[in-house]
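User: Structure please.
Assistant: Input sequence and predicted structure:
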Amino acid sequence: MDYQADKNLLENKTILVTGAGDGIGRQAALTFAQHGATVILLGKTVKKLEAVYDEIEALNAPTPAIIPLDMNGATVEHYKDMADTIDNQFGKLDGLLNNASQLGVLGPFHQIDEKSYDKVMQVNVKAQAFITSALLPVMKKAEQASIIFTSSSVGVKGRAYWAEYAISKFATEGMMQTLADEFENTTIRTNCINPGATRTGMRAKAFPGENAEILKTPEDIMPLYLYLMGKDSVAENGKTFNAQPK
């Protein structure tokens, strides 16, 4: 996307990023901070979150916050407590990037493993539904709030051997559309981003023989993330945006 974000686009905004320890989540957190946001870093590996925290501090950006939470084991109560903490500390939440995802196991449909399937559904679907649900009251306090879900091309058209991940991403699309319809003509907008083939650890796991050097980096696709978090996208709702349109 050819979008030039104003340096202060996200000034005075508080944005929560899930899966903020590496990959697209890390880059989104850094990019939001560079444009003035106070970023809340959520992830399961404290060491990775602390590294991103230090990177943001080095930018002289607003001081971030860290929420260590494993979405595979978190409960609805964890998310409610987290929402209360954010409400008490910041008074509002302007943005939520639901970025954390599990790839699961790629393989024939008749060999779907129950444990792997459950973990993918837990992190990609259930956790994202309940974290979003818990945060909605805090997001209603923002002047304009943006929720972004992370989709995939296999969430629009299923692909052989990708059952676990594809099913979860079709659910993600449905969740986004439901929320967008429910909050149409309000101060909360909801959209999806399909990052496309991006140089991340998850991509390397899915395509181990691929030459990663030819792929876009997470930094390359950040203009779309900035657009959907900032004021220029207030009219966008219920859409799936491709970060790398063909």
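Strands lie at 14-18, 38-43, 65-68, 95-98, 145-150, 188-194, 240-242.
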